Amino acid sequence: MEKNKTVLLVHPEISRTKYNFAGIIDNEPLELEYIYAVLVKEGFEPYIWDGQVEKVPYAKRLRELRPYAVYICGRTRQEGFMKEYAREAKRCGCVTMIGGLHAQRCYKRFFSDYTDYIFTSFDPTPVAEILKGAPPESISSLCRKRGGRWTVNAAVPHDINKLPRPDRTYFYRHSDRYRYLELLPAAHVRTTYSCPYRCSFCVRNCVNCGVYTQRDIADVVDEIAGINCDNIYIIDDDFLFDEKRLERFAELIRQRGIHKRYVCYGRADFVAAHPELMKQLADIGLYYVLTGIEAADDKHLEAYKKRCDNNVNEKALRVLDSVGVNMMGMFITDLDFTAADFRSIAKWVKRHDLKHAAVSILTPEMDTELIKEYKDRLITRDPSHWDYLHVVAEPSKLSVKGYYFHYHVLLIYLFLRAWRQGVYDFIDYKFFITSMIKNMFGFGG
Ligand code: SF4
Predict the structure, then answer these.
(1) Range 160-440 has CATH code 3.80.30.20
(2) pLDDT score for 284
(3) How close is the Cα of 238 to the center of ligand 1, in Å?
(4) Residue 196 Cα, ligand 1 centroid: separation in angstroms?
(5) Does the C-beta of 197 come closer than 6 Å to ligand 1?
(6) What is the distance of C-alpha 276 from the center of its chain?
(7) pTM higher than 0.85 for the full model?
(8) β-bridge mates for residue 149, sequence order
(9) Quick one: fold of 6-153?
């Protein structure tokens, strides 16, 4: 009998409530597309199922395909869905594999009788190696079950320059769905792993074993040239880091006559210190810079070890405004906030006429130093609440109800402001504002 070579690669839905910003930002499943490319090369028959865009339910697809193995990835908030899908796959007799950002750090949370392997690095090749029957003890960054007990092969940083080109067949098939705000479709490109900074609230600097590593920039430009999409979302945790590399990026994009729009993350201190470079990047199509403003006061910025103050944040916004690039200013509402602190973010946005703003609730990620500080104040253990929209630990100066009230007042203010200014005209403002008003008086997620 011929060996079953079918592998189902799964990215679960983000949430099962409607209040989840689906249809506003929907991310290309880039990680699965790397694995897909490796599996095809090794003679397997992979299929992607992305819960953000699929109409056929997962269980139905599983039964249609009858795969030999199922690989499932996701973030903290998707942990419950990842486990549910792994259980279902095991019931169907599949080999079950777990990977992705959450599993990289919190792999122990997936130790279960329905999981066979957990991959703890960005490297897509071990998935194929396991399926080809390589001895698991020879593969690093892998957790595996042996005689019912889990063995952990230590994680090692992956060399990003060994990544293959992702296979974007699935992205092209669903290009009516993958977007960053009004940029539709928006293809994802990764050029680095991890982040060289150490902000206290962030775990992105812990991935890839905490090792920051860059791809050869000529190879990045070559990949971008080959993507059939006008919008490129560079998903590095901090793309605006290395001045020389960015100058080369702009030069190569110009030389090759590539005309696209770009979205990337970038710190305020870098933007503020490099107005000339930002002009060069604007000229080649930089459209949004996602910048962690985090707080309207220096006290919180210091506590977060952000290494930026408000003067720098303001200067960065002026630089981006002057070269015609949109700043998406990202704020954190701390768990020590008073009503006045929520208002201070609204005032900052108004004072500086920031057009694009996003707000997250401070969420201590699992298995971090930060969560140890909050361990006695945690009010939920449900991973779906780790979505930066929920309060997961008792606020210190407001009740949970009071906190949600002020948080949603701030969101409504920002949404109404955006509506009046005509940004995001593709959004169903009425739906979101009605949901936020309901959530002011009893958050239902
Ligand atoms: S917040 Fe940004 S700059 Fe700070 S550690 Fe995280 S990714 Fe790096």
Answers:
(1) yes
(2) 98
(3) 7
(4) 8
(5) yes
(6) 29
(7) yes
(8) 146
(9) Rossmann fold (3.40.50)
Q: Do domains 6-153 and 160-440 have the same CATH topology?
A: no
- The CA R_g of the chain, rounded to the nearest whole Å, is 22
CA of 262 to the centre of ligand 1 (A): 19
- Extract the residue ranges of the chain whose pLDDT is less than 50: 445
3-state secondary structure of 146: strand
Residue 238 CA: nearest ligand 1 atom is 7
Which pLDDT belongs to residue 443? Answer: 66
Show the CA angle centred on residue 287, arms to residues 281 and 293, nearest 5°.
95
Residue spans per domain, the chain = 6-153, 160-440
What residue's CA is closest to ligand 1, atom 4?
A: 199
What pLDDT does residue 1 have? 62
CA-CA distance, 22 to 14, in Å (whole number)? 8
In the block, tokens 């030999």 appear at: 68
pLDDT in tens, 43-58: 999 999 999 999 999 9
